[in-house]
Amino acid sequence: MSSISERLHDVKEKIARAAAKAGRAADDIELVAVSKTHPPEAIHEALDAGHALFGESRVQEARVKIPLLPGRARWHFIGHLQKNKIRHALPLFELFHGIDTLALAQDLNRVADEAGAHPRILLEANVAGESTKFGFKPDVLQKQMEELLALDRLQIEGLMTIAPLAAEPESSRKFFAALRELRDALQSKFRVPLPRLSMGMSGDFEVAVEEGATLVRVGTAIFGARSSKAFRPVASED
Ligand SMILES: *Cc1c(COP(=O)(O)O)cnc(C)c1O
Fold first, then answer.
1. What domains sit in the chain, N to C, each tagged with a CATH number?
2. Which residues neighbour 188 within 8 Å (Cβ) at sequence distance 6 or greater?
3. Ligand 1 contact, 126 CB (< 6 A)
4. Looking at ligand 1, which atom is closest to the CA of residue 32?
5. DSSP letter, residue 163
6. What pTM was computed for the model?
């Protein structure tokens, strides 16, 4: 099996190729190496290979893991943020990808105000309309955007989506295109810049790059399968 360093290199090369195919600059796409469930040693290996941006999806796990790693590692929160975890999450992450309801955005705004923080966020959109998925339905997002933009502590930088699980990368293309079109519509209707699009995972990140992703979230293709021996620390709940 190849090493984390080799797989990182391979993913970066695929991103560069997909960008070139779409006439984009490879530098416009950031790779978030999704390290959830993987131990600090695996993240060290990626850092040693020159990669510094990681994604975590559970606050309890991140609270234990992040302090074990060098300060040059940068962290994005890519999961579903629970209201009671906001206070702990705020100082750990430089971008929150999955803000998925107005109520959560309001809670985040309030806690950020108390903490003197200005979190950068992406709004998660459920463009496929799957009932089991988190995220704003596109029409709801259109209706609530004004209220979201009024939350003065939040820096809304763009949109995020998770495509439905599929065997073929090409199946994701229409959802990634839909996210880009929703972003374009919101930008022109509300006259705000929304430059970031977080879309694409191990199975479909090249298609996402072709459709305009500026952030791809790739775990398995870099760190391997998430196993039962996963890093699952127990942190206190508060
Ligand atoms: C786990 C996760 C990923 C990474 O998935 P892989 O298929 O392992 O690349 C990306 N995005 C989110 C939101 C995740 O929870």
1. 4-223 (3.20.20.10)
2. none
3. no
4. 10
5. P
6. 0.95
80 touches ligand 1 (CB under 6 Å): no
Q: At what angle do helices 138-149 and 173-190 cross, to 10 degrees?
A: 40
Burial class of residue 190 (count of CB atoms within 10 Å of its CB; 0-12, 13-18, 19+): middle
- Specify the residue with its C-alpha closest to ligand 1, atom 12: 78
Query: Distance between CA 61 and CA 235 in Å, rounded?
Result: 7
**For ligand 1, atom 10, which residue shows the shortest CA distance?**
217
Confidence band of 236 (pLDDT split at 50, 70, 90): low
Pocket lining: 135 vs ligand 1, CB cutoff 6 Å? no
pLDDT value, residue 234: 59
Please indicate whether residue 82, judged by its CB atom, sits closer than 6 Å to ligand 1. no
57 ligand 1 Cβ < 6 A: yes
Q: Is the Cβ atom of 78 under 6 angstroms away from ligand 1? A: yes
Q: Please give the DSSP secondary-structure letter assigned to residue 125.
A: B
Contact 219, 204 (CB under 8 A): no
Query: What digits encode the pLDDT tens for the residues 67-116?
Result: 999 999 999 999 999 999 999 999 999 999 999 999 999 999 999 999 99
User: In sequence order, what are the beta bridge partners of 121?
Assistant: 96, 156
